Amino acid sequence: MFAICLVIAAAAAAVDQLIKLAVVKNIPLYETRDFIPGLLGLTHIRNSGAAWSIMEGKTWFLIGIPLILTAAATVYCYINRKGSRLSNIAVALVLGGGIGNLIDRIRMKEVVDYLKTLPFDFPVFNFADMCVVVGAVLFCISTIFLEKSENSDNIESESKNTDGNGDADGRV
User: Fold this and answer.
1) Domain boundaries, the chain
2) Fewest CB atoms within 10 Å of the CB: 1, 3, 34, 105?
3) With bands split at pLDDT 50, 70 and 90, how would you rate the model's confidence at 83?
């Protein structure tokens, strides 16, 4: 499962970088083009901050923290390689999205954003951001709902294997 996590993370980062390359080459900065009319537009902007442009200009912080989180996510995927597939996939998506935006920050000191929701006044975002959000939501679902039921199943099976005095074979 660890290798699959790395492939998912690499694929997410690669897709993000390819889309950003297409946007930079085909849409002038600050120009918007309809993608799905009335719903989604492509707007080429640059963001030197984090979400909603917070911490704008704090490039070294916005590089340092993701580097630490990248290492932590990689270690998590390795340690949890035989654990929940959903939580591993979720962390891999967060990792890939984080790497996609980290590449921009290291290379250009800003992130290329391009997805604009037209019916809502929501900040422009990118594929890497979507990977991070979807991964985080899946991780929460896995942790709160799925691992909870797995743990209760394990507790039930352990209680059935003991005689109430200690070990499963009846020794105290």
Assistant:
1) 2-140
2) 3
3) confident
Q: Which residues are annotated as catalytic? A: 113, 129
Contact 112, 125 (CB under 8 A): no
In this prediction the pTM is: 0.78
Q: Do the beta carbons of residue 34 and residue 41 sit within 8 Å?
A: yes
Q: How far apart are CA 166 and CA 60, in angstroms?
A: 54
Q: What does the mean pLDDT of the chain come to?
A: 85
113, β-bridge pairs: 45
Whole-angstrom distance, CA of residue 19 vs CA of residue 126:
9
CA angle 13/16/18 to nearest 5° reads 110
Residue 58 has pLDDT above 90, yes or no: no
